């Protein structure tokens, strides 16, 4: 009960200090929110590009289109040959009906409505075990010579380029997140440093009458954690405001290309991660600032 009482007292003192200076609290929260918004915005941009690209796999795919004149025996032989091929994996058949339904789901119903019959062929789609352009081309040429094959499409070039761009985006996101995490620790440390200077005499007196480091540190840690949490919520508000502002222009652009794509913001898991990360790093900045002050007092 004594432990709970001490924490409740520190929490109440923190809330009182936050509400006592609302302007300072809001400005600090905005600074933290802006710092978090930049890496979060870049992460969401990469995430939406991946969704727009249809969630490409880590390796490019190769499509083997079956000729309409292929006999049943040729189709079975082709399936057996592709299934046992050492250079292919994740083999699955996409029928012409499935391909047409997928095309219609992409907003191209007007294009296919006037057709007398389904022009799309059946196709085997597989993941090659290599992504090297020369090896992909050799594999494509080999498969194109098989009986019953109309054509072979290997998407290695554009898929590799897109994956390279996405890897750069993920790397930049990680770097920015690391840099702004350090900035968040510095911001929280400076804010708590100002709080410590304002209460330095109180801290010295508390040490003289036997207060432990944990007792002195506790309210400052709560203060830093609350500032970080408020900043994380501010960052989420900024991000959702950007998504709301860009939704209509992006939807208009996508509709010109016949795509149903729309922007998506952070989900619940990502939102909790953003708020929790801001709270954690602000708490860490507060801990560093208080620990340094206590060492100086000693």
Describe this structure in words.
It is built from 10 helices and 4 strands. It has 298 residues and is an alpha+beta fold. It has 2 domains: 2-55 and 161-297, no CATH class; 62-154, 2-Layer Sandwich (Alpha-Beta Plaits), CATH 3.30.70.3040. It has a 4-stranded antiparallel β-sheet.
Question: Outline of this structure?
Answer:
By secondary structure, this protein is an alpha+beta fold. It is 72% helix and 8% strand. It contains ten helices and four strands.
Q: Tell me the series of helices and strands, N- to C-terminal.
A: HHEHEHHEHEHHHH
Mean pLDDT over all positions = 78
Biggest beta sheet attributes: 4 strands, antiparallel
Q: Note the overall shape.
A: elongated
Helix-strand layout with pairing:
Blueprint (H helix, E strand, L loop, with lengths): L1 H19 L1 H31 L9 E5 L5 H13 L3 E7 L1 H10 L3 H5 L9 E6 L4 H12 L4 E6 L1 H43 L1 H9 L4 H44 L11 H30 L1
Antiparallel strand pairs: 1-3, 1-4, 2-3
Helix pairs in contact: 1-9, 2-7, 2-9, 7-9, 7-10, 9-10
């Amino acid at each position: 009960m004594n432990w709970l009482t001490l924490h409740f007292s520190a929490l109440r003192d923190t809330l009182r200090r936050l509400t006592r200076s609302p302007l300072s609290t809001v400005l600090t929260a905005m600074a933290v929110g802006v710092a978090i918004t930049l890496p979060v915005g870049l992460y969401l941009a990469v995430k939406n590009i991946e969704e727009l690209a249809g969630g490409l796999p880590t390796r490019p795919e190769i499509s083997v289109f079956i000729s309409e004149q292929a006999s049943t025996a040729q189709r079975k032989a082709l399936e057996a040959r592709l299934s046992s091929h050492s250079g292919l994996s994740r083999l699955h058949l996409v029928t012409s009906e499935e391909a047409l339904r997928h095309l219609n789901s992409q907003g191209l119903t007007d294009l296919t409505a006037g057709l007398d019959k389904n022009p799309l062929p059946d196709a085997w789609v597989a993941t090659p075990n290599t992504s090297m352009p020369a090896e992909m081309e050799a594999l494509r040429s080999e498969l194109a010579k098989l009986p019953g094959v109309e054509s072979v499409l290997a998407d290695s070039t554009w898929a590799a380029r897109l994956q390279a761009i996405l890897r750069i985006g993920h790397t930049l996101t990680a770097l920015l997140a690391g840099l702004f995490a350090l900035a968040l620790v510095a911001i929280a440390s400076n804010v708590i440093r100002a709080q410590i200077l304002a209460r330095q005499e109180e801290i010295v007196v508390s040490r003289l009458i036997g207060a432990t480091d944990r007792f002195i540190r506790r309210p400052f840690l709560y203060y830093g954690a609350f500032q970080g949490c408020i900043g994380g919520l501010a960052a989420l508000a900024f991000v959702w405001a950007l998504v709301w502002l860009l939704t209509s222009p992006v939807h208009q652009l996508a509709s010109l290309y016949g795509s149903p794509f729309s922007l998506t913001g952070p989900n619940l898991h990502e939102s909790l991660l953003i708020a929790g990360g801001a709270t954690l790093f602000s708490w860490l900045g507060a801990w560093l600032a208080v620990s340094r002050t206590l060492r100086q007092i000693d």
